[in-house]
Structures are given as structure tokens and as C-alpha cells.
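Help wanted!
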Amino acid sequence: MTQDIQDRLNAYITAQIMKQPGRTLGADEALISGGLIDSFSLVDLALFVEESFGVRIDDTELNAQTFDNLGQLAALIQGRI
Amino acid sequence: MTLAQIGIFAALGLLAGAVQTRLPRRWAMLALSVLAVFWLQPALPIRGLDFWLPLVSLGLSAAVWAITLPSGIRAERRDGIAGLVILALALGVALTRHLPGLCCLTPSRPPETLPVLIALAAFVGLVWLAARGFGRQPWTLHARVAALALIFVILKSEPLTGAAAAGLRSLAGQNPALAAPVDIRWLGFSYLAFRLIHVLRDRLSGRLPVLHLDEFLTYAVFFPALTAGPIDRIERFQKDLQADFRMDATRLQAAGERLAQGLFMKFVLGDGLALFALNPQNAAQVQTGGWAWLLLYAYALRLFFDFAGYTHIAIGLGLLFGVRLSENFNRPYLQPNLTAFWNTWHMTLTSWLRAYIFSPFTRALRARRWPAGPIILLSQLLTMLLVGLWHGITWNFIIWGLWHGLGLFVHNRWAGWAKDRPALPPRLAALGGGLLTFHFVALGWVWFALPTPQLAGRVLRVLLGGAP
Amino acid sequence: MSDSARFLRNVLIKAALLFAAANLLFTALDPLPWLGGLSLYNSLLPGRPRFPFGERPDQAYNLSLNSLEAMFASHELAAGLKPADEFRVLLIGDSSVWGFLLENEDTLAAQMNAAALRTKHGRTVRVYNLGYPTISLTKDLLILDEAMSYQPDLILWLVTLESLPYNKQIFTPLVQYNPARARALIAEYGLAIDPDAPEFADLSFWQRTLIGQRRPLADLLRLQLYGFPWAATSIDQYYPESYTPRADDLPPVMAYYDLEVDYSAKDVAFDVLAAGVARAGGVPVLIVNEPMFIAAGQNSDFRYNFFYPKWAYDRYRQLLANEAAAHGWLYADLWQAVDNGEYTNSAIHLTPRGEAVLAQELLRLLEPFINP
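Answered by r_m:
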């Protein structure tokens, strides 16, 4: 289940945010602190998560302390489904 | 905080470290924070105001705690005790007016006891009602946010502060014609207001943990962070308060390192650079571009060493009491671009604004399917404009905010454009980007450091080689 | 004991030991004079055209300090070796020479330089402002003593009666805080000044430690740092919006210090003047009685101005002329060389125009020395 979430997140982030479709992100690759996702794309990511999984990520959670990689984000979503 | 005050806090921290049990430590931190609100407040020329403002800081914090209690949760015995402790301390401070020997807790003699008792009773009534469940509807929470924002606007706008000072002078029976904006220097309000708004907003979004009054008040007016931040987040702060804490050599060493680093940065480097940093006086006098750049570089470094040094001191003091306050700076001047600069400069303020302004605003527009470009432009301008206004409502802070808002937008577009194009060697790009970013920021400081557009314009002309 | 605790204990012990050692070493070596000689001026920064002095550092980018070494090191006089084609003239005196309320281009030295005088042999006459605000001949002597190592060709020493009373000699901090130098001069020239006067600041052991000397050390550092805003703005004193002009109405006081009406040359510090001339050796010293304002208001029938009752000043002029003649001093009396309208906030502070007039007078007096 978590792997499925991770795959869908990976597809979205690489294609829509990084504009590098086909790339695979590691589960622990730093997304926010590593500069791969800026604060604007983070909002897009939150909207995507809300539409795809029905899980709301609050504005106060859009930071590296809450989640900084695919694994953490998937776990967060998993916990709220 | 002066050197003496920092020394006293550090000594108290060592003392608290010697007391190894958790409970007394927690109450000691509350008591110290309450007393420090009065002690750190600078003297004000309006009679009694340097007592009233700290009292209002405490009252506002307690009221916000009460109305942010989740529905169905009622105050406990522990909260009642905390309320009594706060009341007793505030009253004790007020009663020092009858003990001329106990001079040093408030900057001037506290006001008469009867009005203090009336004010305390009013606060108790408000807090009690809210804690019983009255006035906890969303609209009252919104109203509190608006009220805090309004006080903020009054304090940050010189004409409004002046008018308020005139009003307060009349109330105190003093000559209103002598009113000046500096009459109302409310220590720590900028930071306190942002902490309280953060709590109110998180209550509205349902993300606030259950808090006790003593935890909340310690968070709101925690003495190391009272004067100049960091702003911190309550759920993080609460974890530290609830954690078991034993002072040991490792922690002591960490605290000592932060304190030493901060003292050196603020009182040696910062204060040294201040002697030749750009200021309104030398801005009007400097004649040639080369020297103007030197004054500006000195200003840029001074601002960093002063503020980052202060943060080190705050974090060091916090560590002595078992609290690891949020970091506020992470080598901002060594960043390769403006976005990275703003992710590393005054981080607690920028993440606050990102959480409560930038992201909600962006999300609202994005949900309406606006294209990315205009949204980024608008939300960056709005956010940075607010960062500017947070420092003061003047034309120069507005221009400074817009300068950075535009800069962030341009960098965002450029980064997107450059992604697919052949780049310079990475080290060269980082160096060039770093130099460019630093100078962009430094030129922005001209607006930040000087009070009027005329003066800033003069310095910019001189910087760029023009005639003064 | 954990590793961390041991580390912390070692850090504390080492810090305490280093702290004690640094203080002891500082006391033993007394490096302040040497540190005073280290300067950013005349290398990274230009040299200052007048000595550092000021009570409002943040507005003047300047401050008063007691290190003669630092004062000279920051002065343009210390910029490299004396050029071969320079005829070097040093101006010594009080605040009127330093240029109170005057910008640097209006001081006496600057206005003399503006004439761009040359000797017959093509040497450029260059005048240096070594005036220092506080009135005491002994303070002047300290400066002259140090200045001799800068190879002057001529010294102009502007004096007034106020700098002569014995109880003014060690009243100024520059003398009090340089007791060793002052005592050496007192001993060498047999000056009638008490070398054990309590005004001399003899530091205790604790005052000589690093901690005890933190103030003078900070002053050295601040002098360097203020060099940057000074160089950026060329401002080196605080100019008030307005000032109280020199008094025209005078206090009804006949007394002047503790001098008797028929006081003699021994009652005032002519020996310090003599010491200066002797210290200069072969370098000619031209002593100049400086111009002063002559009041016309209340009590001006028996007083000249705020400083002087007429009897005391008249007697001083007469004595100084006699002493000069008796010892063969080069002497010029310019007490009335400048119009009464050209004084600013004191009976001896001149306007730019007043300084210009005095500069012309002095240049005229210079002629025989430049082209003997």
C-alpha cells in the first residue's frame, strides 16, 4: 500500500514538479531541504495529495520538519487515509 | 538583553540545572518568564505604562490560551494553580511600589494597587469565562486574530503610535503634546503577537494540541526568546517542556558553546561593526561610492552578527532550561540564490509567513486553476510585503519588501528556465550566484537601514558612482 | 565521570589558566605603547590631519584617548618617511590650533598649506596640525617631545597665558595618563612641577592587567574602527547646530588663579617653554602669543575677556617678551592680529576668516626661516 502511494507521488513529482519524467526518487531523498521542491510546488503537491488520496495536508505542515522525503510523506498519507 | 541580564539568566539556568526534578523546573520557568516580562521591558515616559504593557502581554496570552482550549475540554486544577501563580507574581511586582528597596524589577515605580487589582480581576473574568467554554466560537477566534493584527498595525505605524501615545498620556494626566512614537516601546510584542496568531490559527484548523496554561504562557513569553525571537512553534516547544530533562555535561557544553558564540557575534563583531555600519547619519554624509560600499557591507554583516548572535544567546539560554528553540539562521550570506537566502535568514519568521500567508494564498488561487506565473508573482509580493510591514509601516520597508518579492519571483522563473539549459560549472555558478545574491540583499538593506526614500536614494546614487 | 564532563572540566580549567596567564603576561609586558603604534591609518586608511579628539564618538567618528603612540600613528605626520623636498613645519598649541568648530580645510595648518609656499631651493613648505584641545604647556611639551622624531624643520608653538599657570600643567588627562613620559621631561629639564602629584595616574597591579586596561584597549580599537566612517565622510568632530558665542559681558572677577598682581616669571611655567626650546635642539621654535578676543561689554574695563583680567594678561605679555629676549627665544606677539568679529564660541577660537588672517601673519613670520 505504502509502496503504491510512493509510486504515485514519485510519478507526480518527477513529471509535474521536476519536469524529469521517468526519473525515480529514493524513498529517503531530501525533497524540500534538498531544494527539489520549492514552496510553490509544495502547495501543488498538497493539492495533488488531497485530490488523489482525499488526505488534507495543512499549510502548516508544508515544511521539511513534517516530511522531507517520499517515505515520510507516504507514511503521513497512509496514517490519515 | 544586556550582558548583565544574560549573565543572570545563565546563572539561574545553572541553578535550575542543579535541581534535577522536572516539576520544580517547569514552575521555575513559568515564574522566571512572568517576572522577566516586567524586568526586560525598557522604561517608558508615560506613567505606569512600563508596568501595564507587560501585564497586557501576560493577559493576552492567558486569554488566548483559554479561548483556544478545544471544545469539550475544560481547565484543570493545574491550570488553576498556574493562573494563581501568574496572578500572585503580577500582583507581587505591582506591590513592589511600596517597597522602595525592591527597585529593580520594573524600570520605574509600578502604578497604584487598586487599578492593578481591577485590571487583574478583569483578566481573570475573561479567562475564566473562556475557560468555561464561552466565546470559543470560530468567529471570536478570528476576531482575536484581527485584534492582534490591529494592535500590531498601531505599533508599527509611527503616526498611529504617536496618536495612541497622546491618548495614553491624556489618560495618565500627562501632556499629550509631548507624545512621541517611542513612548510605546512594547518589548517583544512583534514576536508575541505572531506566536499567539499561530496558536489561534492552528486552533481554527484543528491542529492544536491540548495545552496547559503554564506550558502556554511559558511558550508565549519564554524569556530567552522574548526580546528578539525565535518565534518557534507551540507543539515543538511543548515536547521539550514535557520531556525528561537532566542537566549533564553534554547539554552544558552545548549551551556554553551557543552562548559563547552568540556573545562574541553580538557584542564583539556586531557592536564593533556598528561603529561604521550604514546609518541615517553617515548616509547623509558619505561622499564616494567605494566608502559607501564599505558602510553597506559593514551594515549587512552587523545586522547578521547582531541578530544571529542574539539567536545563539537565546538558544544557549534555552538549552540551560532544557528547551531547544528553533534555529533562525543558517549561513544566509553564503547561499547561492535568493530563495535559499530566505530559507536561511530569520527562518522562524519566514516559515511562519509561509504557513499562514504564502501557502494558504497560493492554495486558494491554485485551487481556482490560475496559471503558475501570476500566482507566484502575487504570493511572493504579498508575502515579502508583509515581511517588510512586520518591521514597520513605512515606504522604505514597503519598497524593501517589494524588492525581495520581485527578486524571488525572478529567481523562480530563471531557475525554471535554466533547468534545461547548459549551465556553468557548478562551483563557478555557486560562487557567482552567491556574490549576486549577497549584493542583491545588500542593496535591499539600503532601504531597510534608512528611514526615508530620499536618503536611501542618495546612498544608492553614491553606491552606483553618481554624485551625492 | 563521563567523557563529556571531563572535557567540560578541562575546558574550564584551561580557560581559567589561560585567562590568568594572559593577564599576568599583559601586566609584565605592558604592550599598550606598542599596540598604540599599530594602526590602520596611513596604510589601509589615510592619516588624520589632526589628532583624534572628541567627546561624541558616534557623531564625530573620533574620540579622545590617552595613548600618544596611537595619536601619532593615526596622524598624517606618520605617513612614511619625510620627503626630501619637504620643509616640515609643526604647529603646536591648543584647541584653536586643532580647529574647534572648524572643518579641516579651514584650520590654521590647512590655510597655511593653501599658500603652497616654496623655499628658494624648491622645497615645499608643509604645515602639520599638532594642536590638541586642552590648555597646558606640559601637554604641548609631551607632543613636541614625541614629534621631534619626525624631523621638523621649524616648530610654531602657539601659547596663551591660560596654558601657563602651574596648576594647569598636569590638569589634562594626556599628561596624567602618561606619567612616565611627563616625569622624564620634568627630571631632564628640572621643571618646577611635582613629579609625585596625585593627579598622575599611577596604576596598581590590578589596573595594569588585561582586565584593568580594557578601556584603553577598547579605545585603540575604536580609534581604528572610527577611521572608516571618518574616511568615508571626512567628518572628525561634532558640529552643533548653533553655539553660544564668546562672552562679551564678563564676570566681575579680578583674581587670576593664585597669582599676585606683581607676579614674576618664576610664578608661571616659563620653564616648560624653555624645556620645549631646549628639546627642539637645533630646530628653531617660534613662540607665538596667540590672538584673543577683546570684550567690550560689562566689566570689560578691567577684564579683556572670559579668561583674563587685564592686569594678569598685561603682566604676562611683558614677562614673556622679557623671557624671550633674555633666553634668545624666537617670539612674536600676535594677541591683536585678528579682528574681534572673527571669534566663535571662545575668546581664542577663530572663524575660518580669522584663521586665514592668522595664517597670513604666520606665513609672513615664516619667511626668514624658509629663505634664510
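OP: Thanks! One thing I noticed: DSSP finds 20 helices and no strands in chain B.
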